[in-house]
Amino acid sequence: MEELINKLKKEVIEQLNLEDISIDDINPDAPLFGEGLGLDSIDALELIVLLEKNYGLKIEDPKDGKKIFYSIRTMAEYITEHQKS
Amino acid sequence: MSGQQYQISYWCMIRQNRVVMPGRDWVPNENFLTFTEFIKALYKKEQVSYPKFYKMDNLSKLGFLCAEMIFKNNPVTGRYKSEEIGIILSNSSSSLDTDLDYYKTIKDPSSYFPSPSVFVYTLPNIVTGEICIRNRIKGENAFFISEKFNSELLETYGRLLFESQHMQTLLCGWVEILKEKYEAALFLIEKKKDNETGNEFPEFSARSMNTLYYKINN
Question: In the beta sheet, which residues pair with residue B175?
């Protein structure tokens, strides 16, 4: 799980152009939106693309997004759970 | 027309690794920087703190920083109401630089992942929006596409806005980028005050803008 979390941090930084942020700056349990990294609605769409492009996972129900993208750890948990099935 | 006179209160030009403003001429120490390297170096040198900058497309980064350097040296937001500040920008390549980036994300049917964050910049006037958001500008704005820098258009349309709207100041000019060829030339226009007649500010005219534009382009 920790390996996936670090990989996700790198991918999020690259995909969202978070130039001034390093892997160590991201708390895996901190909220990605609002506070924390302060991401916006376009970033949310980019995260959906990231999951599909890098992990082959499509989010069928948009309502799930809030839970899946709460933090880096919740994203990692979703990936781990759904790539198994 | 009321006979009101207007002046170019400040200006900034950015072109191929060089920034020129009244009394300042900056070229980075490293030669032959790419646009990405150059604009990042300029952002850091000017100590701008605006994380959203990194998410912008190249056209917006160029226009945003050029405007930033003008407003940093000549702030208008405290002197005028948001609605009294207008923006007229222009270029020749529209948003083609970003359109091509977006096309890369959709051209391969086997790897079709349209990028939302690139897509939102596939219009040239987004740069105007970025400058407005940063500086809380709510006045008239327009973005024109013309083959080359057209100072007559900027003067004519600018004067029209001054005369027909409640506009007190105007940021106008040229913001052009396509691949590694880029240039921005922005001018801050204000009404000339009575007691400033004969001051050192150039008159707001196509001729003055051409003089400044071609001065650094040659």
Answer: B184
Quick check: pTM over 0.90? yes
Give the residue numbers in B contacting A (CB under 8 Å), as ranges.
Answer: 40, 51, 54-55, 111, 113-117, 120
Residues of A in contact with B116 (CB under 8 A): 42, 45-46, 49
pLDDT tens sequence across B80-128: 999 999 999 999 999 999 999 999 999 999 999 999 999 999 999 999 9
Q: What is the ipTM of this complex?
A: 0.84
